[in-house]
User: What shape does this take?
Amino acid sequence: MGVPRQVSIDSDSNSPDTKEKLTRLIESSRFFDMPSRIDATGHPDSFQYKIIVEEGERKHSVTLDEASMPNELKPLVKYLMGKM
Assistant: This one.
């Protein structure tokens, strides 16, 4: 339906447990090693994602659709979707 949804999490303003979990998910997904765009696999009705992570001096974004999402990124996306 093209309805954008957005979540923003400032880990510094959350509990230490939340910050640790988010950091663990980012690291285990190898988010900062991913390309900025992961090409769609031809599923026009797939959800589209743009994930931006700022960590200290590092900032990286990844744009992809659900059909092209690497398995290691799925736990992070599931966590973020739960915060909406």
